[in-house]
Amino acid sequence: MEQRTDGGVRMRRVAAFLLDHLVILAYLSALATVGLVLIRLGLVDRVAGVLDAPWKGQALGLFLVTLPWIMYHASWEASPMAATPGKLLLGLRVTGVHGGPATIERTTLRSAMKFVPWELSHTVLWHIPGWPGPVAALGPGATVGLALVWVLVAVYLGSFILGGGRRAVYDHWAGTRITRAASHPVEAPRGMGPGGWHRDRIALTGAGRRSLRVSGQGDSVQTRVSQ
């Protein structure tokens, strides 16, 4: 029978998303603690001076929050684990579109595109007069910008649902997909040459006598389990 490793990942991805956001909450809590320390030291006026222009406030958020969060995802997903801690706990991994390892370039693009609505929303907010203080009214530019943010969110969620959780629109752009991690550990296949994988048959652990046939080329790997 054909071995499937990419089924039923939608709810696992949602749970992994929530688990990974515990990490960002811890990080934001640490930033808030630093802010409180600055207040106690009487350095708030100096920090406020950094935010005297919209682009400065946005740049601060970009370098302190967005970029670290992008690299958190990209580095873990390009590592040998091929998953963030949340995905690891839920038995998921990020691969190339054909099942091979995802490169750091692909995972960085994937993560960066995933955070476009987040960064666009902050771009709009920082250019609203009065924000982050009281805002009298939204201008037409802010209204259009925020509407675009919600359109992107709807496209991302729609592609996630229609793709069964395996590929959202940013996965298509980056050439990646989310799959279930293999449930049976196997030995490394023999006979791998410089041109890619050679067809081979290797033993699976577990009860009974079964074998795994591996074939493919480049980052494309197909498996079939036979009894």
Task: Summarize the structure in words.
With 227 residues, this protein is an alpha+beta fold. The chain folds into two domains: 10-180, no CATH class; 186-227, no CATH class. It has eight helices and five strands. It has helices at 10-40, 44-50, 54-78, 85-89, 104-114, 116-126, 140-162, 169-174, and strands at 92-96, 176-180, 200-203, 211-217, 220-226. The strands form two sheets. Strands 3-4-5 form a three-stranded antiparallel sheet, with no helix packed on it. Helix 3 (54-78) packs across helix 5 (104-114) and helix 3 (54-78) runs antiparallel to helix 6. The longest helix is centred in the N-terminal third of the chain and has 31 residues, at 10-40. It is globular. Mean pLDDT is 78; it is low at 1-7, 183-215 and 217-221.
Instruction: Report the sheet-strand fraction.
Output: 5-15%
Please summarize the sheet with the most strands. 3 strands, antiparallel
Share of helix among residues? 40-55%
Order of helices and strands: HHHHEHHHHEEEE
- Report the end-to-end length measured between terminal Cα atoms: 8 Å
**Uncertain spans:** 1-7, 183-215, 217-221
Structural category: alpha+beta
Query: Strand order, biggest sheet?
Result: 3-4-5
Tell me, briefly, the overall form.
globular
**How many domains, in number, for the residues?**
2
Overall pLDDT, averaged? 78
How many individual helices?
8
Radius of gyration: 23 Å
Write the layout of secondary structure elements.
Layout: H1 10-40, H2 44-50, H3 54-78, H4 85-89, E1 92-96, H5 104-114, H6 116-126, H7 140-162, H8 169-174, E2 176-180, E3 200-203, E4 211-217, E5 220-226
Antiparallel strand pairs: 1-2, 3-4, 4-5
Helix pairs in contact: 3-5, 3-6, 6-7
